[in-house]
Fold these 4 entries.
Entry 1:
Amino acid sequence: MSSVFHGPYTAISSAGAFGPLWLERLVWQLLFVDGEVAHYRVTLTQEDRHWRIVRPAPDASIAAVRRLEHEFSLAPRLMPQWAVQPVALLSGPEGTLMVLEDASGVALHDQPEPLSIEGFLQRAIAAAAAVSGAHEAGLLHRDIKPCNLIQDADGVVRLSGFGLSVDVQLASQLPVFDAICGSLGYMAPEQSRRIQRQADQRSDLYALGMTLYEWLAGRLPFEATDAVEWVYCHVARIPPPLSQHRGDVPEPLAGLVHRLIAKNPDDRYQSAAALHRDLNEMLRQWQELRDIPDLQPHLSNGQHDASIRTPSHDSTLALRDLKAWSARTSINLSGRDALDLSSVMKSAHALRDESEQDRLIETLLRNTIVHAGAQRALLLLVKDEAPVIRAIGQSGAEGLHIELADRAPDKQHLPLSVLYRVMRTRQRLVMDDVCGDAYFGADEYVRQHGVRSALCVPLVKQSRVLGVLYLENNLAPGVFTLCRTEVLELLASQAAISLETVRLHQELEQENARRRDVEIALRGARARLASVAQATVMGELAASIAHEINQPLASMVSNAAAGIRWLNRENPQVDEALSGLRDIVAQGRRAGEIVNALQSLARQGPHHRRQLLINDVIRHVVALTGVEVEQQRVLMTTHLTCSPLRVCASSVQLQQVVLNLILNALDAMSAGDHVLRRLSITSEVVGRDYVVVSVEDSGRGIEPVDLHQLFNAFFTTKDKGMGMGLAICQSIITAHGGHLYAMPARFGGATFVFTLPVVE
């Protein structure tokens, strides 16, 4: 493009004439975009000269502009041997831009094909020389990444992107709440403010190590979706070996790269100069032997690097717009607790939305490990007042693995001395270097595993310990800072509530399931008992009917025999014989009616309602039970209304009700020595709207306490009763629009009364 700027631009500061006319004559070429800023190569074709221009986007934050201004202010300290030099800072209506010298170099973030080992070593040596030059000039870059390394045609690598740089001496004096800075994919753990260290030159070496890893493997060692996960990866995850991505990397070279990206600054190279010497030695061996058989690091004891170490500080991390940056975007952010708040909110939402315990446990442990920067974590829940391991989380080269468990803890799982101290005191326990602790350092687990940073937090709800979270990081000391611990306690409090809620929810679901099973079983039992009760009633009825049928059968046999005798006489008495035959027919019909009534009651099939006289129903049942009444020496009387009013009902069902009430009355009077046994059955009409039928006996009566539950299913006062008869009677009468009552009789005993609506 010919121009991307319009309007007058003035030089804020420059080493030459860079004004509006100069800008208008430029040809612009976009090289790449790094977050909020774009990088261009501009050419002045008439003079065959070119520069690099860095321009913030129109909507870039003020921080992006401040970084350009800061980089330009460092220009006197940036030497051309190792840095791309700023030459002008211009300001206009479209924003600020910075002009830099350009030696036709290319940024090293685009790598179309893998580098050879020799090509990699040459590039790495040049990059280490540039970083060493910055450090010798007293500058801590804090944002080393491929796009800030510019290589020219001669192979010289120069640093750019000094917008986050600080003086080495100033780095150790920065406030503990200084903002996180760097690029998420490359920044050292101490730049994330997650460990108790200030950034120093070794932080730049970590970022350079991530860059070297990417050049060899073709990718970064970690992948993440947001700032919280990136920070966790740098603090706790072990990078996968380079051999996993590329098999031709000599082991000493891979070891050098992995040493650069060690979590603990003390385990890294201590200076870029030492790294530069080792890389040169590796290149010499490779060129001579086409192999790197061995390498003895020049600074293995760190004796020349003590001056670059900085005191430990308890630092915090704060981010805003957490998902706004890629792994390669430079950031410099303040706002003290934004990342912690985001982590808490994310975890709280995840815990709140889980209703299944195993998923809740996995979510809790995963969020805790990521937020705290732990390598390993255990969640223990208290069961029967003893701790039980419910989940184990382990960070590895492949990512985070969560294993659900259900086992008692032992000395192979965690320091038992730490666990029981926390459970007893209900207080968190934070240790920066457990191996060096006078008390816990003697724990067998600590000695076997070399535990460095450890944190143990109780899950407490209403003064009751529900469980314990144990976390450790053996890569670096001081990982679990005070601020991290306070946030984890907040998460632990939320977790305790969620775990208790899920437990109660599961208990409720189990109780509901148990109740459903019981209700299903109860309905089945009721149906079976109702059938048994009906069969019992039928058995009692059959015994009574057998007596009743015997009478017509005996009469029929007697009349038949008499008829034969009348006809066998010398003078047959035909009239007498016909009279006997008529009696036989009558008795046969009576027996048939008895059998039909029994069949109707026993079938319990669909009942068809029709208009009928209630007195006919009563008389029919009285006739059926007559023999039983006589055998028990009961005086049965009936007082039936003379009104011809009818009811709409099932004859069979009403017969069942009357029969059950009569048989109950006979049972009540048979239990005990009653001198006078009386059974009275009456029917009458009340206001021409209802017919009222009552069955009154002189038995033992009803206890007052039993009156309110007399019609409940399975309630009985009999020694052998099923408790279903009166419940069935009530359901029949209710279905017919009537009511069934029980009350004490006037002269002892009990009275049962039912009402039915009259049909006009």
Entry 2:
Amino acid sequence: MQSRSKLRMLLPATAAIVAIAAGGYGLSTIGSAGADEAVAQAEPQITPVTVQNVRSQSVRLWNNFSGRLSAVEEVQLRPQVSGAIVDIRFEDGQIVKEGDILAVIDPRTYKAAVDEAKAELAAARQTLSLAAKEKARAEKLVANGTVSKRVFDERVNTHQVAQSQVNRALAQLELAEIEFDHAFVKAPIDGRVSRVELTVGNQVNAGPNAPVLTTIVSTGKIYADFDLDEQTYFASIYDANKVSGAAQQIPVRLTVAGGETISGFVHSFDNRIDTRTGTIRTRALFENSNGALLPGSFASLQLGTPGQKDVILISPEAISTDQDRKFVYVVQSDNTVAYRQVTLGSEVDGHRIVTSGLEPGDMVIVNGIMKVRPGMPVAPEILQASAS
């Protein structure tokens, strides 16, 4: 009985010892697992990124400008003789050739003047012929003393006056023919006419205040006029003087509706810089064989450098913004990330020029930027299709 009582007292104590031992083992196991997880978390995560190998490239640089198109030739067609308009031979907006008759001013008066001038010329020539015969006869007679020297001089004078009358009649005929020709109003240039300003039946007068019949603008070529800043002007002239031949032409690109680009070149610079704006008036020349480009249209222009320049180009995906600053992330030689502030230039074929902040050989992150920060280790993969 006493032994059973002792046994009941030992069982709880033994159970407690077993429980404590088991608990100790469990705590030991949990502690070991936690330590392994902490070690794993302490190891740095290697983030994969795509990088672009920065290199120097030779490209033509372009600057953007805006301007207006203007005709190479533009004529306000006015009557050069007076009279009634009897015929109009063109339609609004028609393409015409130099010499085409566009309008007719009643030519009858001018035709009569031509006929009269021809008759006057014929009479003057007849008088000259008679005077020439009289002069020749007088020369023979004065030689043998039959007539006096005074009579001979009169015959010579009569001949000279007759010759002058012929010359005058010739001039009058030429003037009459010119006025008759002006009765047929012709296109002085190839181009496109404007609308008909005066119709048949209107009376017109020649002179400085003569009304405009229509306007003609040339279509084969067209100008683009724009203002170029002083700095770009001098840089363009300096670069053009360093090359020779056709390369001296400063290229200009004109972008029209639909994104189509037309290539041209600088035709001329003005002879002075506007001191108020610091710009110089510049004119570019473009082909316009189909006449689609119209004077007065807005012109979106790009002025190129005469030659190519060595620059650093990077993909726009690599560029980030920090308030008013632009920066990129570069991968250093130890495969850690570094912050690099950059200064950007113009855009070339979808890439951006970097004027400062990068050197050839730098590795710029272009994909995975949002996952990195300065000092973080990364696993870079070089982008195969780099800027070109």
Entry 3:
Amino acid sequence: MRLAKLFPAPAFAVLISPRLAVAQSVFSVRVGEVLVWSEYLGMVAIGWGVGVAVWLVSGQPAITCLFVDLPRAWKLRREHVLTSSLPIYKYLLGGALLLVLGAILVDQLWGFWTSAFTVGLLAGVIVGAGHSVVNIQKLGGPVDFLEANQRYLNEDEIPLFTEYDGA
């Protein structure tokens, strides 16, 4: 589907045509080429935004589950800090589910408009992944992980949580 079907192209052409007429008289520019290239750039920008959103919705949480929280749960289970294997299964299944849902989403979006949208989609996913790699250290520390799995803690090994009366 072309972008021209979604937006009223005549209104855009009326707004931009006086400036293009001046540019065409000064430079050797064809109005049609400028409109086609602006359409491609718009599709790349939209694909870029969708790619970043897809990564932040499914890719980053999946990678966090599989490569940050799952190893942490495995290590704490082996050290007998966690009394159950449920956190391990939770992060394994959660990460796998997010990866599958992200793959389905990308499959549905692939080829949505043109190759320009696809290029933008890939670029957005790559930029989102780069953002996640840079900020991976900021994702929940050890205390956040233990708070999320508080009911599975072996209190003899780690007496971290006590009641706080607020006084």
Entry 4:
Amino acid sequence: MSQNNWEADKMLDVYIHDYLVKRDLKATAQAFQAEGKVSSDPVAIDAPGGFLFEWWSVFWDIFIARTNEKHSEVAASYIETQLLKARDQQQQQQQQQPQTSQPSHIQQQQQH
């Protein structure tokens, strides 16, 4: 496992522990910290509900917006912007493709 993956795993563990503590799941948080050897250092992003919960809330809102379920206006705007960007990118790619000439049998038919 690379150093970056190891650090990412450890950071995820720290934020899972933070989430458990903020949900008042003390025994679970303590067991997770002991078994996973999770650092007891304070988290860098100290959100009231926990960074993991904040991140999940944003992810879920955007995910639900894609399925046309109940979602926020912000998520709907984000999805619309992403769709417009994808369409624009597709149009640019089509414009960059060289124009192919028509096969000779079609050109002959058009001349007659």
